[in-house]
Amino acid sequence: MKSMLVSKGGCILRIQSILNNLKSAEHRVANYILDHAELVTAQTMEELAVASDASYSTVDRLCRKLGYTGFREFKASLIYDVINNNNVGTIIQNLTVGQETSTQGIAENVYNLAFKVLEDSLAIMNISEIEMVVQQMIKAKKLCFIGAGSSGLCARYAYSRFFRIGLNCASDIDSTLYKMQAALLTEDDLLFVISSSGRTENVVEAARLAKKNGVTVVGLSDYAITPLSKTCDYNLYTTSRNANMFLNIDMPLITGQITIIDLLYMCTCVALGEDASRHYEKTITTANQEKTRNG
Hints:
The chain is α/β, with parallel strands linked by helices. The protein contains 16 helices and five strands.
């Protein structure tokens, strides 16, 4: 079976994100890998099983839970992580600034963090899931984008992108209103839920309300098993919740969310072809006329 994930790195992120949801034997293997990543890159599947006091089948099962086709692909991804061992946590620690920190230094750290978040997001991306979500968005009679806090801003951004290419869209960041919207959606519609943690009570409740009506639900969150991910039909991920758990700024989360929205938008434009171009040109013409009047 062909892997649905980008094979370049991301192994450590995947392990960290599902660690607390693994069975005892799988948890033992995962912890061993995290503690001895460099050593594991030189081990066979049998050697890893023995070293972690687990069975061959447990190691194989863990590899598949992580999204790999087997041990070989898992190992290739782990090797990439070990060789390129710069991680989001290290970069975040370097973001600590004081009055003596130069603008150049701040700029380099901020951009390095943004680049790393996007690199991690690409590494764990399920291309097949992206393609399926695009098809579901195109065939939906109505798209509803919802989110809370900074994720609500990203929901509004998504709305501003997709309505311009002719898709019937709605968006709301008020929890009462978006739960009402979710309750009124039908099986022909699609609810797109954005939540970094995947645990924001109101957005999870909205997703569950929509599911009761047979609505297709897409989630965009950090890479982790959460109440939202368990509710959605399709899940898209930014970067690992574990990697950002001690970060108290929203920039990395927004960076990942906006980029995935842009990816979906571009793929949808390609799929719609001239229809997308025609609708977009209409909105451009209207916007330009408005600017001229207010000029």
